[in-house]
Each structure stands twice: as C-alpha cells, then as structure tokens.
Design a protein that fits this description.
Layout: H1 8-28, H2 34-39, E1 67-69, H3 75-86, E2 97-98, E3 114-118, E4 131-135, E5 140-143, E6 151-154
Parallel strand pairs: 1-6
Antiparallel strand pairs: 2-3, 3-4, 4-5, 5-6
Pfam families: Ribonuclease
Keywords: Hydrolase, Nuclease, Signal
InterPro entries: N1-like, Ribonuclease/ribotoxin
C-alpha cells in the first residue's frame, strides 16, 4: 500500500474531510444538472429565458449569452433581419462582409463563419455602432455598441 508510513489518525482525518466535501457537493448541487452547477444556466436546451424577461426557447449556440427576441429589437434591426432573409439588397457596401470576431466576443469559428450587416442608427452620419452578425450555422447576434457586447437574437 502506498500510504503505509502515514499515521492512521491522519488517514482517518483525510477520509473524514473527503467525505464531508463529497456530502457538501452532493447536497449543494442537489437537483441541478452538471451544466447548471458550473454556470448557473440550465444545461438542457429550450429552458432558459431571454434577458428581456419573456420565456423563449434558447438554442444551444446561444446558451450562456444575453439574448433578445427579434421582435424586441429596434425597428431598424428588424428591417435588416428581413433584408437578410430576402438576401438583400443591402444599403451599405460593407453589408455581408466577413466579420473577423477579433474581439472574441462570439464563439470561436474559422474565418468566414461570421458576416456582418449594418443597422442604421438614427442621428448618426456614418454607419453607427449597431450591427447584426450572422453565423453560418444559422446564428444571429445583435450589438449596439460596435462589437463590445452581443446578444443572441431569438427568432
């Protein structure tokens, strides 16, 4: 046995400590799924709610992110979503170009996975800070602070 030279009293104390830690973990996590214990979010798809308070199905790609229902987006963003669904035409030449995700605010994927679209900001003379970013897997994200933060768009 590896623990041959360790005093029995120390082994008993370590065993009791291990047992207590196991009990605290079991009681503290009772009724939670493994994902919920780590992140505080449900581990099963379709049970989380968006940040605006309404219940909705949250796809796996959006789990752990702030979310917004498409109908809760500003009117200009809803118009861009409709243009994306139609395949254009888009008002800005940069629309549909590759979004590099250099800020690493979105899940990592190979270059070319994400594309960005301008959401007009009333009162701005240039493109403004608002964008819709789409993923090749059907994801939609909205930012109103020029890529600092994103919300997963629930459609």
């Amino acid at each position: 046995m590896i623990l041959r030279n360790v005093p029995r009293s120390l082994l008993r104390a370590l065993g009791a400590l291990f047992l207590c830690a196991a009990l605290v973990t079991a009681v503290g996590c009772a009724g939670k799924t493994p994902g919920a214990a780590r992140t505080g979010a449900p581990a099963s798809p379709g049970t989380a709610s968006p940040s605006d308070g309404a219940r909705a199905v949250v796809p796996g790609w959006a789990r752990g992110m702030a979310t917004v229902r498409a109908d809760a987006l500003p009117q200009q963003a809803r118009e861009v979503l409709a243009l994306i669904d139609k395949g254009g035409p888009y008002p800005y030449r940069q629309d549909g170009t590759v979004f590099g995700n250099f800020e690493k605010a979105l899940p990592r994927h190979e270059r070319g996975y994400y594309h960005e679209f301008t959401v007009r900001t009333p009162g701005e003379r240039d493109r403004g800070p608002r964008r819709i970013v789409t993923g090749s897997g059907g994801e939609f994200f909205y930012t109103d602070d020029h890529y600092d933060t994103f919300k997963a768009v629930l459609r």
